[in-house]
Design goal:
By secondary structure, the chain is an alpha+beta fold. The chain has three helices and two strands, in the order ααββα.
Length: 64
Amino acid sequence: MIRWLIIIFLALLLINGLSNLLERIGLGRLPGDLRFRLFGRQIFLPFASTVLLSVIAALIAKFV
């Protein structure tokens, strides 16, 4: 169980570090990604980017 927590933590750190690069190539600005302000806070829901990254990860896992 602790191994999975470490893997998830490292994956989140990697994604957070690469977020600027991912935004430059267009992820985070796809038509299904929602950004809105609610009670003075900006909320970002990346639905389309999540689906796209999941499909890419599944294809990589299938061929590896």
